[in-house]
Amino acid sequence: MRFHRTRRGMRGGSAVVLLILLALIAVSGVFVGCAQEDGTEDQAAEAEDAETEDAGAEAAEPAGSVAVVFGRGGLGDESFNDAAFRGLEMANEELGVEFDYAEPQAVAEFEPLLTQFAAQGQYDLIVSIGFEQGDALGAVAQEFPDQNFAIIDTVVDQPNVASYTYAEQERGFLMGAAAALVTQNDAYEMTNDAGQVAVIGGVQSPLIDANIAGYIAGAKYINEDVSVAHGYVGSWADPARGKEIAISMIENGADVVWGAAGRSGLGVLDAAMERGVYGIGADSDQGSVAPGHVLTNGMKFVDETMFIAIETTLAGDFEGGVNTLGVEEGALGYTESLLTADTIGRLEEVEEVIISGEMDIPTTVEEARSM
């Protein structure tokens, strides 16, 4: 378990204030010179010191304070947690907030960490990252009713919790459609004739199953004859196991594999690169993980969600309740990466289908398999 702290960078407005203060200090210096001639050197020096201290205090004053408990696996997953951290950095740079954060390694750490932050009584907002923190946050939010909380990726039904969720099946639908458009397509050199694609989730849950169900439905929407394999790593932080499962699916014919599995998904992309097929990243642009093999990335714009949660709170507009975000809201999407112009055009059509609501996208694997 590690704690870190950062300070805000200089914003444009603060820089202007500082320049004005420095100018005033310079003018004070002129008067100090005159004062020396008049025999009032000590008083002038004290005035200069006081102004310098005031300037430093104003420059260091944060606009607000936020604490974040990341999901298991921590930073460096090049996925969900890293995307959330980018949102923190945006808030630091653009809003001038100060923040603390913790990287738990076990579910049992969630509640103590949230309690520790809440007990300090110094944060405008405390944010939980990931659906696994739902139970822990529910308990802590009840214990600290005057503290504002937010959670990304699940719902906690407490008046002091703003819940940000995503229409996960929509993202899965887009990624399944992309996979089906690519497999058996001569425009993509790393495909085969098997007509099989695959998706690997991290820990089995309703959230991950919605992604998988959407993936299956999206692939079938494009081509009913495409075969879709799916599986679970059982962990968010086991790249070796993710790679092992992906290799098994690739050996069975899959030429496009999506890893919706946090840090475990890095192993899926590694398998795609090693076996010469296409991988699909998740949450962040993971093209650097397997150069030349990341077809696209199923984007969940967690950075923007984090920024919105913080900005809303600092503006005094915090409100408990559920905020569900999807393709229409610009919260879910994909990167163009290795996709051809033709494929992108087809995916834009798929986006319109999703936004129109004419397609009832399944949220369970059983429902998707029965379509």
SS field, number of helical segments: 12
Total beta-strand segments: 13
DSSP helix fraction: 40-55%
Q: Order of strands side by side in the largest beta sheet?
A: 1-3-2-4-5-6-12
| Low-confidence regions | 1-41, 52-59
Q: Given this structure, which CATH class of the largest domain is correct?
A: Alpha Beta
Helix-and-strand structural type: alpha/beta
Tell me, briefly, the overall form.
elongated
| Tally of discrete structural domains | 3
Order of helices and strands: EHHEHEHEHEEHEHEHEHEEHEEHH
Rg over CA atoms, rounded to whole Å, is 25 Å
Alpha carbon gap, first and last residue: 44 Å
Give the averaged pLDDT, no decimals. 87
Protein architecture, described:
Helices cover 47% and strands 19% of the residues. With 371 residues, it is an alpha/beta fold. The protein has 3 domains: 56 residues; 124 residues, Response regulator (Rossmann fold); 162 residues, Rossmann fold. It is elongated. The N terminus is likely disordered.
